[in-house]
Structures are given as C-alpha cells and as structure tokens.
Amino acid sequence: MRPSSSLVFFASSLATIASISSTAIDKRHIQAWPEAIRSYYAAASSQLSNLRSTIPTATLAALTPSSCNLASPVMPSISGLPAVSEGLSLYHVAVGRGTQNYTCDTKDPESTPVAAGASAILYNATCMSCIAPMVLAKLPASTLLLPTPKDGKVLFPAQAIMSGHHYFTDSTPTFNLHTAAHNFGIQFAKVLNKVPVPETQQQLGTDGSKAVVWLKLSAADAPEGLAGDASPVKEIYRVNTAGGSPPKTCEEMPGDFTVQYAAEYWFWG
Questions:
Q1: pLDDT range class, residue 148, cuts 50, 70, 90
Q2: Is pLDDT above 50 for 8?
C-alpha cells in the first residue's frame, strides 16, 4: 500500500476552515455561495470538530502520511457495480477534475454523441478517504464549481496536491500517477462494468449535465509499443461522479466537444 502525501495539505485545509468559521462572516455572503460549496465546508467543519473531540490538538498537528490507515476507508457503492475482487487492498485514492470528450455527426442532429475518451488531472485524496470520508464525498461536486486548476497546482477547496493524470492512449484508459514528487506507477486499464447513476444520486455539472456512469476497470496490457511503469494496481473504480454526460442528441453541437466533470478514482492492488 502506498501512503498519501496529502495529509498535511488536508490538515491545513481543515485548519483554514476552522479559522474562517471562527470569524464573523456575514451570513448573507455564505448564503450566496453555491450549495455544493456550502455543503463541502459544512462537512469539513463538522469533520474537524469530530477530529478535535477525539484526537488531542498536539497529535492532530503532528499527523504524517504514515498516520493514514488504508484498511479503514469504505469506497462508495452503487447497486449493480461489482465489489472489489477478493485479496486486493487499497493502494491510492484520487479526485479527478477535467473533461469527458465527445464527437458528433454534424450532418445528423438527431444522432447520439459518441464518447471519445477523457482528460483529467488527478489529485491525491488517499488520506482524506481515511480521516474525512464525508468531506471527500462532497469534493467532486464542489470542485466542479471552481475554475479548473492549472497543472501542478493544488485542487480547491481541499488543497489536494496533484498525483497524476488520466487520459486515453489510443482507446485505452491510462492512469499516469508519476509526477516530479512521486511515482505511483502508470496503469493501463479496460472497462469491466458501468452503472448509470440513479436520479436520487445525481450530481449535475454547472452546465446541467448529468453525472457520468460509475465504472469498474481492470488492469490491461499496454498498447503496442508502450510500457507501463511498475504498478501493483489490479482494479480501478470511478465513483461519486459529478457532471460529464453529453446531451441526448447532436442537435446544435460541434463535431468535437467536451463536458466538464469530476469524480473519485479508487485504485486497488
């Protein structure tokens, strides 16, 4: 198991929230925030209170990545999505923020958009999944309301640091968890199962797009001429998605277009 290096950043994020909550903020300003942002900060503030009530302040301040117990997180589940295969352990958790990509037949406005891969920056949320799962659950929808971070910058509002990139190599989903700060490996994958998000769990994008399907993927061979970078990952899940789905038809759509999305990615090995 690979411990996260994001715990210090997450702890500082909680400290920032505590500082904000202890000052006199005009309630009208808070009410003006989008619901997803308010929900995220409310969850983070509640989580900080819980941590402070159970962990001494000095201990909380001294938390390190090795403090994360990767046996404790419970991955979000949805009816119809198979469970993690027996014998696998949690390796990494990331929040992806980017675009789902599509093509359209511009000569047929009634045709259906065709998926053409995705492109996203992945942010380390492993320790967040351990110590603040209810905060992590709010992150995809809330970060979707904020500008897309520049490559190498932290993901707001969680201050999560970058753990890599998700893209497609030809038609193969690729998870490149290799940065200047760490090397968690490069994994190629294939989709095993996909499950639509029920209406009761929909997290819409800022453009009104529905959440893309939840996925279970398995490790796949590298495309011809390429090689993965030593990774123990055997299965990957895309869960808790927000936005990313295309319109029902290609009416008034260009030949190529993107839809903003965010999601949690859980890596098991």
A1: confident
A2: no
- DSSP conformation letters of 32-61: HS-HHHHHHHHHHHHHHHHHHHHS-HHHHH
- pLDDT reading at 144 higher than 60: yes
Number of neighbouring beta carbons within 10 Å of residue 212: 24
Ordered DSSP codes for 159-170:
TBPEEEEEEEET
Q: Are strands 214-219 and 172-178 parallel, antiparallel or unpaired?
A: unpaired
Q: What is the pLDDT of residue 132?
A: 82
Task: Supply the pLDDT for residue 130.
Answer: 85
- Record the pTM: 0.82
Provide the 8-state DSSP code for 65.
G
Quick check: helix, strand or coil at residue 199?
helix
Contact 217/189 with Cβ under 8 angstroms?
A: yes
Which backbone phi and psi does 12 adopt, to 5 degrees?
Answer: -70, -35
Q: Where are the beta strands (DSSP E) in the chain?
A: 90-103, 114-124, 162-169, 172-178, 183-195, 214-219, 235-243, 256-268
**DSSP-based three-state secondary structure for 198:** coil
Using CA atoms, how far apart are residues 166 and 92, in angstroms rounded to an integer?
Answer: 14
Tokens linked to 81: 């999505």
Neighbours of 10 (CB within 10 A): 27
pLDDT interval class at 113 (50, 70, 90) = very high
137 phi and psi angles, rounded to 5 deg: -60, -25
What DSSP string describes 175-187?
A: EEEE-SS-EEEEE
Q: What is the rounded distance in angstroms from the CA atom of residue 125 to the CA atom of residue 265?
A: 9
Angle, helices 7-21/35-54, rounded to nearest 10 degrees:
100
4 confidence band (pLDDT: 50, 70, 90): very low
